[in-house]
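Protein chain data
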Amino acid sequence: MAFCPHCGAQISEPSNHCPQCGQALHTDPPPQQKPQKRGKYWLIPAGILVVLLVTAGIFAAKHFLTPTGQSYCAYISDQDLTLLNQSQRNGSEITLEEGIGQWTDANFDTGGKYFYFWNHYNYTDALSTTADLYRVDPSKLRGQSDRAASNIEKIAPKAIIDETEILSDDRIVYSSYDNPTSAISSISLQMYDKGQTIDIAKGVDSLTYQDTTNHYVRCENGLLFCRNGDLYCYDFATQKSEKLASAIYELLYFSQDLSDIVLSKLNADGVTYTIHRGNPKDGFQQIITDASAVLDVNDSGTIYYTKTESTEKTLYDYVIDQTFQSDSQVAAPSLSEYTYPSSDSTSWIDAQAYSEAYTAYEAVRQRNELRQELKSQVLTSSTTDLYVYTEGETTCICDNVAPYDTQVCPDGLVVYVKERPDPTAELKLEEIEMASDVSTWLRAYYLNTPTTFQYCFSDVTPRSLDMLEHREELSYVWKNENSIVFRSSNPDTYGDTLICYTIQDGQLVSPKTIDSNAFPYYYEATPDCLYYFSNYSAELIDPFESADLYCWDGETTTAIVHDISSYQRYEDDTLLYFEDPISEPNASDAFIWKNGEKQQLAEGCEQVLRVGDDEWLYIADHTLFYRKGQEERAIAYDVTQVWSAQEMPYTTAQFL
């Protein structure tokens, strides 16, 4: 594939002129003309001027719109992958026999030494996607159509994409299915190093660490993985695996040198856990028994966990039975008891007394039947207590907490929901007609009795949290030295209500509503401030079509930009944001916000990369452009995706 030597545009068809800049691609010698006798001297400076202007134009086009230093980008066009040296305007087409899809996972490594891309996807199951991983060395490409395998390394066949990691020394660690066509196949760990594939382990189990389940976890000098329930460490230097612990359930914490490891083991009941701490050299000690859940293990060794105990009650336990003793002594009346002899040697029956006695007995019988029905309906309730383990001591923070509404925030702050106390019996048995009356009363109690939020810092002194109004749930979002922000669902707007508390003398005081219509769950938390979207509308198909970006610094809220769909924020506080035009559902207008000034980058952008202080790569109308300052030029056409070795890192709102 050819490239224009003047503007760098891709030339897909044979042509004498560039379709982008119009410059001639082949320069033929000018036809010989008969020299004129008059005015020949004034043509010399004019010709020199023309040459200088043309040279200056070519120099400007090649240098002022050319990145300084080696600058590589890669893009997909017509299922072909092209690596382009923007500095030299030298492109190399990378072609595989099976073709390359219009969309693929790819990127340059740190420093741009290699370009990695995936191909030949295989969706093994609902959770894992495998593909072949390739690597290309851009420095070895010289502008030719590179179809040979000499510059393309297939380094990880059928690797699990989410479990592939590029190490700093160019080695690649990955996991793969032994049988890629089966979701129940065993898993192997492998490493690619200088053209060789090294088998680390076969038959690897899943390993859960920090609420994430994968087949390995990186540590300082190797990989942690499980096999047959045992925890192992593979050392990169020795290329050997060492068994660290037996029969573990979950890896909770480890120091990078593996001198301090916290893990859990499942008890025989299959529900509770024991927590162990130690290291392979000195052994592990059991420090906690019968934990129902581990909430957090921090670097200082503090462990927050819960214990749950289940109890059984019946509906009868919620009833006041004042007639039980007397009713237990009542028997069915006998007719003989109410039959009396008469004077004429016959007998007579006191029918009224018998009827009254039988009526009383029927009432007792019905109460006994109701008692049996109430006692037969068993209710299993559980109570969960919150504990903290630190420096070898265990302390109960609070009893009867909601296990799924307890969260550990930074700096030892714990926020939890205090469950409603178990109701005491209020209904009298003689006032109840059926067992469902007790069930209805219990349901009304739990619906009408609000839960209370409490919190405590490391001093383990629980305090009630002022909620301004009743809330069913509360989630931590952001914290700085003097304040903390929580979110709670707003039933009126279907968005989030953001509540900020001031931290004063170890207490959360002065609650303040920051926003009552924030976009649910999407926030960017930085050490200095919280970025969030507001004016959320649940009626929109895509709520991000129209949202305002705000910033909260702990004291004040600042509106940054309005009516945007998404943004990218860079370290120098340059903001790249997008607005979705109705006419272009799959493209966005890109704008730059810097030092309080708004500048439009381009219309109808499908992808934008920042590759320098004032340099950008973007795709608009399937055309790849390079922009520097106010000048831009087209690089390639029919482009669906682009990557750059010089892409600058950015942050954006994330789902909490």
Q: What stands out?
A: Residues 26-64 have pLDDT under 50 and may be disordered.
